[in-house]
What we know:
The structure holds two protein chains of two kinds.
Chain A: H1 28-33, H2 38-68, H3 78-114, H4 122-141, H5 172-200, H6 213-244, E1 255-256, E2 259-260, H7 268-301, H8 309-322, H9 340-366, H10 375-398, H11 400-406, H12 410-440, H13 446-473, H14 490-523
Antiparallel strand pairs in A: 1-2
Helix pairs in contact in A: 2-3, 2-4, 2-14, 3-5, 3-6, 3-7, 3-12, 4-5, 5-6, 6-7, 6-8, 7-9, 7-10, 7-12, 8-9, 9-10, 10-12, 10-13, 12-13, 13-14
Chain B: H1 2-20, H2 33-64, H3 79-108, E1 115-122, E2 125-130, H4 158-161, E3 164-167, E4 171-174, E5 179-185, E6 190-193, E7 200-203, E8 209-213, E9 219-225, E10 238-243, H5 245-253
Parallel strand pairs in B: 1-5, 4-10
Antiparallel strand pairs in B: 1-2, 2-3, 5-8, 6-7, 6-9, 9-10
Amino acid sequence: xxxxxxxxxxxxxxxxxxxxxxxxxxxxxxxxxxxxxxxxxxxxxxxxxxxxxxxxxxxxxxxxxxxxxxxxxxxxxxxxxxxxxxxxxxxxxxxxxxxxxxxxxxxxxxxxxxxxxxxxxxxxxxxxxxxxxxxxxxxxxxxxxxxxxxxxxxxxxxxxxxxxxxxxxxxxxxxxxxxxxxxxxxxxxxxxxxxxxxxxxxxxxxxxxxxxxxxxxxxxxxxxxxxxxxxxxxxxxxxxxxxxxxxxxxxxxxxxxxxxxxxxxxxxxxxxxxxxxxxxxxxxxxxxxxxxxxxxxxxxxxxxxxxxxxxxxxxxxxxxxxxxxxxxxxxxxxxxxxxxxxxxxxxxxxxxxxxxxxxxxxxxxxxxxxxxxxxxxxxxxxxxxxxxxxxxxxxxxxxxxxxxxxxxxxxxxxxxxxxxxxxxxxxxxxxxxxxxxxxxxxxxxxxxxxxxxxxxxxxxxxxxxxxxxxxxxxxxxxxxxxxxxxxxxxxxxxxxxxxxxxxxxxxxxxxxxxxxxxxxxxxxxxxxxxxxxxxxxxxxxxxxxxxxxxxxxxxxxxxxxxxxxxxxxxxxxxxxxxxxxxxxxxxxxxxx
Amino acid sequence: xxxxxxxxxxxxxxxxxxxxxxxxxxxxxxxxxxxxxxxxxxxxxxxxxxxxxxxxxxxxxxxxxxxxxxxxxxxxxxxxxxxxxxxxxxxxxxxxxxxxxxxxxxxxxxxxxxxxxxxxxxxxxxxxxxxxxxxxxxxxxxxxxxxxxxxxxxxxxxxxxxxxxxxxxxxxxxxxxxxxxxxxxxxxxxxxxxxxxxxxxxxxxxxxxxxxxxxxxxxxxxxxxxxxxxxxxxxxxxxxxxxxxxxxxxxxxxxxxxxxxxxxxxxxxxxxxxxxx
Lengths: 592, 277
């Protein structure tokens, strides 16, 4: 992989791109607000996602207060509790994680990492953000409408979601569906951009197998999202019609509050199939960018090439493909055709193999590395632990018969928080620390960063690891209070109180993180263009933060893969992707 | 090296927590100990992998953390190692999946001698129905539901007349007799959930779902709803009592049949508590 000379590839853009190809902002408004620069759009996406994410964080505090200390807080009633869990889940999965990984990291990193000046459709890219913002505002508005937000659970299962026994049945559910439809429209505009940019706008020499794994992760996740979100789109439209026009796509003959309703002939299970046909790929839409990014964090900070790059790429693609045929493992106890269990359990457990390969390759990258335990690396290690833990409990829930006693208990809550909550957020936080110097030109405060890591990692583990055992005991999820239940001992209530205290602590420690980011923006040390001595293109920009158009006059030319760390014979322990073969300084006396 | 030590302690602490946790599954009350065994196999395999991966990682951090003059190895791939790890993982996965599928086969194969009982969910209460002397449950339809016919039984169906209808009461099951639990809902999704039974299944309006169990010990067990069903989901409770044969029949004798229900009994008006509007 070392020093492969660049050979011309037909169809790659010329090194020097004429000025006219880029839209140049003419005013403050078009530079910072209605900007078509992917980097500005990335920051807009990230800030919006973080803002609504903070709402979800506060909601989690409220629900933990109720779970830990039932009956203590008179301002939380059963309806509100359901509204909190619903909004918390929906915000975290879709409006925070999906938007942040794809709209945030995708926008910032894809053009820089593939050596493009910008996304290929900058105007559509800008629209994508504004539609996303509208979706977020519609979602947030449900807190202020009569009846409040929907309390149907983030899965929004009908018939419950649109009937009167569920909070938010008036406005909340209608606006939720509308917001999801808007989100998908906005995402599709952005997603097409990410895919086409990766396929069409890579700089000369940047073959697919030289792409950093970050790009592979985001790219594959985006392809998946473009295929999966339409299922949610369709389900949302149909549910909206059932609610507003009285159609019966998902509604059989049923009794509503003692009266026979006007509905008839629909299938509640159809919604579940559509929802999870989206919902399971969605798990990997969040996970694959995290897989990609964490690979690059580990490689960079261990000063070692990622182990088994080709296997890593194929594992990402295989996971992406397989994730479309496992959805019904969320429905083992839904009442669906029982024979489905064999198929979906088998496919689900097969996914463990490429996923395990990724884990092995991460830890094997550490083997004989030169591990710098900087904040991004700590978060990467925290990711591995939480992801392995959450991934392994997935083998319980994926194995159809084991899922029967555990489904709908706190075991499920603990599992998915560990694997698609805590683990991806470890990567998000690590990635923010990692690229903060590139985005701002300044270094974060290291001591605050380490404090933030330890409180977040150990705290999150203390919250979710013991929670599995509540589920094993049989404690159901989505319960406003457990009340007097013979099989739940008082010690389980004490554990709930403990979890709540830790959750509040971890929540507040995020303020340290936000303070660190804000403070370092003004007071942080200047970082220079490539503080981690990394190989990938985004660290080789002529300006830091990168200017409009990213590359100055000439696009970079790529000569090697993204992981030339500690190459034998080379004087430096990294060789940037755009460094020509003859420019590599060798250790004195070593043969080339 | 503090970081390596903490990582290792996370793994060790997790194992110790697992061993000494006071929170463990409830004593089983049905034939589904197979499920518990499968969970145990899964715990052993996943626990081993968890400890091995974290310990290896902690060792790497301990052994290879940055020091002046250290330089990383350069080894892009190792086909043989990657191949062996994949095969080993495949074997581990198969060792969990195979027993799982065997037990699933048992789970979905109802024995021929199983008697039927019906559980009906509605916001937010449970109703139960047992076949009468004819041993068959009558047909039902949500459109038949009325104040004097809370479970929507078909008045013209002779099999329905002697069905035992239990509203706002407890369900009794007979020890050692396999029973197919038919599940039905008249409004939204519910899930008939008794932790000691291990089995559970959603109840879906418009469908009849089921699971089967053989109770293996007597006792009184809490019934919970495990599928979110609206504002009072958490209050949707009942009890199941597993009796010896004699007590079971004594209880059954006292129950009312559908034909014997008073014409306008207390009814199906769902208790709507602290509702959504």
